[in-house]
Structure formats: structure tokens, C-alpha cells
Amino acid sequence: MKFKFSKHFSRKGMIIIILVMSVGTASFFTASKFFDERAAEYKIATTNAKGFRAFLLARAGMQGGLGALKKIPEEALYQSGIAFNPPPVPLGGGMIYYKIIPEDGKININYLVKTYDQQPNLRVMEMIQKLYEQLGIPKEKIFAVVDWIDENNDETGGGAEIAYYSSLNPPRKIKNAPLYNLSELTSIKGYDRALVYESLKPADYDKNNSQDFLSDEEKILVTDSDFILSNNITAYLPYKDTSDERININAAPFYVLMSLSEFMTRAAAMRLLKFKIERGGYVKELKDLEKFAEFQVKTASGFTLYNELAGDGTSISGGRVKTKGEIFKIIGVGKVGSTVRRVTSLFDLTNDQILFYSED
User: Fold this and answer.
1) Are 135 and 255 contacting, i.e. CB atoms less than 8 angstroms apart?
2) Residue 2: is it exposed, middle or buried by C-beta count within 10 angstroms (0-12/13-18/19+)?
3) pTM, whole model, 2 decimals?
């Protein structure tokens, strides 16, 4: 039996069928779009949740570093070997890392300009010039930093003032104030990320400096990390009027040590390294260095190298070095799955103050 529709019904039925199909199709696409949007929102929410957990872990890592600095004697931190960079700790479904870096073993480029009269600090300039020579950086780049920091508009050497920065495309505003952190250096004429954070090691360095005939101590005297500018300089604002230009010799890398004085020698740096190793990695008293012949070299002023470096042991003595660390960078890292968050702070241990804080 063949089922037949009337012409009237067929036309009307067809219209209804088409309408139903259209509504069904539209509903399907609406539902699919709704599902995709909700799925995307769920993915975003999940990622945000992981990010927040990772951030909390990073904060916990930074707090762990602060606790280590406050509760563990500095000598023990150095002698433990791993206290500045302990293994990761599993917690809360993720991992916590922290790292402590003594920052006053580096040269603070903010000290290039004296705050009380805005004039160049010749002693710090001498140290940075010697450092730049060793790393193959033109000394003229120092003047651009001086101009960036000082409050006047007088161009120094090969530096740059407002006329240079305003002519850039796009224009840039000169700071005329100290840097809050080292990353600001990349905004200054002649500097970029590669110069500040990447290795400046000459291509033929290893070929011309074979380690085949070096002692174990000599092999660790200069490492690959020493060729990175950011491992030798820092930038921070001291707490109130507590600026201290002296370099912490327990944390100073080789090229910083060699920049301390015109009369500093590789032999003296080597003697210091050996003495640190003998003492478990930490020199407690500057006075202990006076007995070594390498530090009895006479300077142009008639003092010994030891006297020039140590002064009378106070921050106002004219001495250039110290053994006690005061400024530390603490990096806390939290990781949940592939999501990573980092918290960084600069901490003044002596004054119990955080000088700088950032999250990323």
C-alpha cells in the first residue's frame, strides 16, 4: 500500500519539516558554540587555578629563603654548600624551589653617581671601568649610565641626555634617578638584553686558555658565569641612607675581585679563593688576609693592597671590601604541572627590609 499526501498537506508539511530542521540545525550549532565557550572557560579557569597555586608556592619559596637568611648564620649558609640553592620540595601538588644570591658581591651601578652632590663617584667608576675592560665592553658605555642616573642634563663623555632619548622612535623618557633593578639597564643607550644577560665569553677563550695544566682551584677561579655582565653588577636602592659601596669578597666573582684595585692581581684572587676553600667557603675576618704576601703588594699611595682593600674595617673608612653580606636576592619558584610562577625580592638583612619585589 502506497502512502500518499495531499498536495496541500505536502506543501505545508514540507514547510514544517524545513522549519524543524532549521531550528534543529541552529540549536545544534548554538549548543556546540556554548559547549566550546564553556570548555574554553573551564580551561582558562583551570589554568588560572594552577597559576594561583604555583604563585602561592613561589611565595612560600621566597618566605623559605627569607627564613633561612634570618635564622641560619651566614657562615653556615656558605659552608653548607647547598643552603643558597637547596633541592626542590614537593608540596601542594607541585614543587617549590628557592635560590639566594648575595647581591653585594657585585658592583652596584647606582653608586656611579654620588647622591649628595650628583657628581660621578670616581672610585666606583674606576672599578666598573676595569670590569668592562675585562669583559670587552667599551668604557664609554659607563657614561650613558651616569647620565641616566644623575639629575642634571649635562652629557658626560659618550653618554646621552634628554636630547638623545627624545629623538628615538618612539621617544623614551630619561630617568634622571637611580635604577630600581638591573633590567632597567636595557633602556639605556648602548645596552640591550644580550649585553646584560648573555655570555660575553670570547669565542677563542677556551682555545687560548687550556685547562689541561690548571689546578682544581684554578679551574673554578673563572667559570662561564663570570662572563655574564649581570653576574658582576647589580642595581638597587639602599634602605634610607645606609649605602655601602664595599664589595662582599665572600660572594664576589673573579672579575669583580680583579676590579677592586689597580694593584689587584690574579695571584691575590687565587690566594683568596684557596683561603676560602680552606675555611669551608667563607672568610670571616678581613684581618686573616693581611698575612699573605699577595696582599702586601705596595700601591701608588704607599699602602699595601690589604690596607687599600680593608681600610679600618668600617663602611666610612675608605675600605673597598667586607666579609659580611647584607643585600640578598631571593628567588622563589612554584611549579604546578607545566605552570610556573616566580617571585623575586631584594632583601636588606641588616635593616630587615625588602628593597625590591616582583612577580612573574
Assistant:
1) yes
2) exposed
3) 0.84
